[in-house]
Design a protein that fits this description.
Number of strands: 7
Helix content: 40-55%
Order of helices and strands: HHHEEEHEHEHEHE
Radius of gyration: 19 Å
Shape: elongated
Strand order of the largest sheet: 4-3-5-6-7
Distance between the termini: 54 Å
Number of helices: 7
């Protein structure tokens, strides 16, 4: 196996990239400007070194706490709970939400061996007990695991806090991911959220 085959195999392991797309990427990189290639390889090499989870919300950041958690203009009475850090980026890109976030790091999936203890739930309860917090918006994906996780969080928060718990409205298609939702659907989902 030569370096082209190895790199093609590496790219094809990325989500959404098959072998043909990976081969096209490798061929494109072979023709790319050497300065671009040097900068690109440096960025990949430094990615995990420079980017870490925020100590407050769990979203990806270079500075800790992240720009959202450290922004004094954000609505500090609302926390939007999402599955993954990329969900924060998706909601931010859509605009309209000005509160804080909390990243679970996944969903409860017993068949995959993921229980509540493997998720970032304990710190959510601590944050929800803060007197400033008045609402927790659960924005897990509308899948079986996402709905189960939302129900688990709703019951847990009801036991330990007096915070209002809401869930995004069903504008997002069942089985879909927040990452692929369009801005209008996401905006309507926030406007139409309901108590659970």
């Amino acid at each position: 196996m030569n370096i082209i085959d190895e790199l093609t195999a590496s790219f094809s392991r990325l989500p959404g990239i098959g072998k043909k797309s990976a081969a096209r990427i490798v061929n494109h990189l072979l023709k790319a400007d050497p300065a671009y290639m040097h900068a690109f390889s440096k960025q990949i090499a430094e990615l995990q070194e420079k980017i870490k989870p925020c100590s407050i919300c769990g979203s990806w950041t270079e500075k800790d706490p992240c720009p959202i958690c450290s922004n004094p203009v954000r609505d500090r009475s609302t926390i939007c709970v999402v599955e993954q850090p990329q969900d924060v980026q998706t909601i931010e890109a859509a605009g309209g939400y000005t509160g804080l976030y909390h990243v679970l790091g996944g969903v409860i999936a017993p068949l995959e061996g993921i229980g509540p203890d493997q998720l970032n739930i304990a710190s959510l309860i601590v944050r929800a007990k803060d007197e400033e917090i008045s609402e927790i918006i659960i924005a897990t994906n509308p899948t079986f695991e996402g709905d189960s996780t939302a129900l688990y969080l709703q019951k847990l928060l009801a036991e330990h806090t007096n915070v209002k718990v809401t869930r995004l409205a069903t504008g997002i298609p069942v089985g879909g991911d927040l990452e692929y939702a369009d801005k209008l659907t996401l905006a309507r989902s926030f406007r139409g959220r309901t108590a659970i």
